[in-house]
């Protein structure tokens, strides 16, 4: 496994296992399989409703807690200082741990400044090893960085070969925030797995399209958290540290960037209405 060092000196695996849309009833099995395969970073969220399954898996896996890196996120309905403070304690209980390695604000809506103050407090108390944000695009990220006491360590945003986020990446680098991808495969949208560029590069290295995509993002300085419920694919996704894409391959993939989301726009009022209606 390779690591990045966050702006507070905490080391974070560059590749982890994400549990978005993993059925809570299946989550313990999936996370147990992922840890057994070799994953040490697990990414969940309050809104996924499967923190409990993650907690069960890590409490039974036999891997020392200090070798695991756990990420979860405060949801919109838990925003604001008091609600966020209570939700952090609830996440700790569900995850069956005394500390969380990385806590993110899940969406840039509601009183996220109040949420961040609660996270800063929990960070100082040793309950959180690092804090950051998710889905904060450059304007929101700059605003937050300018006025908080503890700079966010990570910003997790939609990032894949068809939406590479170069401008956002540059802003993150400027402010010392680690870029992390959610949905590195774009859930297979836009013909991701049948694209001839990926297939040609995969054949060249004797790898799969998924492995090429993950390798591209890692070499671009992006942390990745691919999700699958299949053990064989978990093993495939983590096996990306024994080859390196050449400059030509990297440029070919960079040329595929369309600059548009495969899912939604956080600037669309209908999207904001939808997200803020969820609990």
UniProtKB/TrEMBL annotation:
Pfam families: Aldo_ket_red. Gene3D superfamilies: NADP-dependent oxidoreductase domain (3.20.20.100). SUPFAM superfamilies: NAD(P)-linked oxidoreductase. Keywords: NADP, Oxidoreductase. Residues 21-257 form the NADP-dependent oxidoreductase domain. CDD domains: AKR_AKR5F1 (cd19133). Belongs to the aldo/keto reductase family. This is Aldo/keto reductase. It comes from Solibaculum intestinale.
């Amino acid at each position: 496994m390779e690591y990045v060092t966050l702006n507070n000196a905490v080391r974070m695996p560059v590749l982890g296992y994400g549990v978005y849309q993993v059925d809570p009833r299946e989550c313990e099995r999936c996370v147990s399989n992922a840890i057994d395969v070799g994953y040490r970073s697990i990414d969940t969220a309050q809104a996924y409703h499967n923190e409990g399954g993650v907690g069960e898996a890590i409490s039974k896996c036999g891997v020392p807690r200090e070798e695991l890196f756990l990420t979860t996120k405060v949801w919109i309905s838990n925003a604001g200082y008091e609600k966020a403070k209570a939700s952090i304690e609830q996440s700790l209980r569900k995850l069956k741990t005394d500390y969380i390695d990385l806590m993110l604000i899940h969406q840039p809506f509601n009183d996220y400044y109040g949420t961040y103050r609660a996270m800063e407090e929990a960070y100082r108390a040793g309950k959180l090893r690092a804090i950051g944000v998710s889905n904060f695009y450059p304007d929101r990220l700059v605003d937050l960085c300018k006025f908080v006491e503890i700079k966010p360590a990570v910003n997790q945003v939609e990032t894949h070969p068809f939406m590479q986020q170069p401008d956002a990446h540059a802003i993150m680098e400027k402010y010392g925030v680690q870029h992390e991808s959610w949905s590195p495969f774009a859930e297979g949208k836009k013909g991701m797995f049948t694209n001839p560029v990926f297939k040609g590069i995969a054949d060249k290295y004797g790898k799969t399209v998924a492995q090429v995509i993950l390798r591209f993002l890692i070499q671009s300085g992006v942390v990745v958290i691919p999700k699958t419920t299949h053990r064989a694919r978990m093993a495939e996704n983590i096996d990306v540290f024994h080859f390196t894409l050449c400059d030509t391959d990297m440029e070919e993939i960079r040329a595929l960037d369309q600059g548009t989301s495969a899912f939604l726009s956080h600037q669309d009022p209908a999207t904001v209405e939808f997200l803020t209606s969820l609990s």
